[in-house]
Amino acid sequence: MNSNRMRNVGLLAAPLAALALLSGCGSDETGTAESSPAPASTTTASAPTIQTGTAAPSTTHTDHTQTTTSTAPNPEGCAIGELNVTLGESSGAAGSVELPVVFTNTGGRTCTLDGFPGVSYVTGASGSEVGAAAGRSGSGSLVSLAPGSAATSLVRATNVENYPADQCGVTDVAGLRVYPPNSYDSVFLAYPTKGCSMTGANINQLTVAPVAR
Question: Does 87 score more than 80 pLDDT?
Answer without folding.
Answer: yes
